[in-house]
Amino acid sequence: MLPSLLWYLEQGQTPPPHLMEAFVYLIRFYKGSWENETLPVRDQPATIAFFNTVFELPTVQAQVAAILSNTSLWGSDLSRFTSLQTTLAINL
Length: 92
Hints:
The chain has helices at 2-10, 17-29, 45-54, 60-68, 71-74, 82-91, and strands spanning 33-34, 37-38. With 92 residues, it is mainly alpha-helical. The protein has one domain. It has a two-stranded antiparallel ribbon with strand order 1-2. Helix 2 (17-29) packs across helix 6 and helix 4 packs across helix 6.
């Protein structure tokens, strides 16, 4: 999913809505719960710990900035795409 998302962003285009929606849901999944039910988050302990820490930040904007700027997750700093930050902040 990430290569497709990056292609659109690097072209200065808006990614298709379903691609953005999938990315939002991927990140939201790491919160570990949905509608009072626990989700089975399985990943590297460091990744889970990172998301646990991030979701304790006081604002959605701070959470999104931390997630997108984590180069160990994405291979690059995705926070440089302001449209991605905005879309995630609105939808998370």
